[in-house]
Amino acid sequence: MGCVVVTLSPLLVDLFPGSTRQVDVEAATVGAMILALDQRWPGMGDRITDSRPAIRKHINVFVDGDRARLDTPLSPGAKVYIITAISGG
Amino acid sequence: MPTQILVLIGTKKGVFIARSDEERRHWELSGPFCETWPIQHVIGDRASGIIYGAGGNEWFGPAVWKSTDLGRTWTHSSAGLAYKEGEEPVKSVWSLAAQHDRLYAGVEPAGLFVSDDGGDNWSHVEGLQHHPTRSEWNPGGAGLILHSLVPDPEDPQKIWIGISSAGVFYTGDGGQTWEPRNRGTRADYMPEGQNYPEFGQCVHCLVKAPGGEDLLYQQNHCGMYRSADGGQTWQSIEAGLPSSFGFPAATHPRDPSTLYLLPLNGDIRGRYVPDAKAAVWRTRDGGETWQDLRNGLPQENAFFGVLRQAMATDRLDRAGVYFGTSGGALFASRDEGDNWACIAQHLPSISSVETMVVQQ
Prior knowledge:
The complex is a heterodimer. Chain A is an alpha+beta fold.
């Protein structure tokens, strides 16, 4: 299992004082990566995923440029972006 | 210690708080709080002094926000505020109630959660999901929402809830078993002959009168009602009102016979105040007679609505009455509704109004 570089949405960082825009995480899948983020900043997992479980409808996770799901595997050194979709009114 | 009154305002874009002293002549507004999340309900817990805000964000899902310093700083949690894997997830939190050192949350899709640690962790009151009618509950215009949450102030086992559009339900055993309590309330949208079903009514707001009796009032999609027996039977109190449609209802803090409603012009006529002239309607006799209260309220070109949780009273003497509009205006009366003033405007659309009196 290798380390991936996760870039968090600034809105997500605002919700969790002490979190940072960029964080290194050791995880083999996107689901495991979110679990690791949740352990570091309790509650962050609920903001990214729902209880189906699935990535929330208006959150996008990209791994090396491709849209990912919870079971998407992560290669060592992968660049992951957690981004809020266009939404609102 | 001087008395401070806080009006807690839930809006489509965060929580706002209006503050005044007990004279309630001058108000200061602060906000938006809670990162401008859509907030359905904000309450102040009298016992702990904590303010809670409930809502759901399109990006980040449902959460209950919490402030232990009267609104200056906020944290949020949804730990445990979830249905089982595979079920439709909780979309938003619609209602809060603090009673007997517990915090209750009503959610969409309709369900009830409880927290025993001030909103940090939640557990599901599963009994409601096991009700035999559950599979037949249909959503109202805002979704299948548990928006009215009335724990009995005396008996922790007794809770009434209102769900759009499943109706009123009651538990006498702390949430293990529930029974519909809709007898006497109409469902005009059902076929002829099926207008008084056991459940499926579109309750809009359910409140309990002060005084220790099981006296309830409700504003329904189809009429206004009073129940003297905890909802087992309901009697219409809509005679004398300008329409049978509206959303909020607010009780007086001490007088069980005084109730405030804000009727709108009808469910298919735009849902704004009748004739575009704003009025709160007050009864002093439990719904036998009604008086329209207009002094200080806009009497022309008022095309706003007021939602189900957006009217409240305070517990000062004389009682204050407050309501927030779909157009983002907050109106206040410091004399039980006789005279009104606009104390904030141009806010986001207002979902809820509650009050909190603190000594500082």
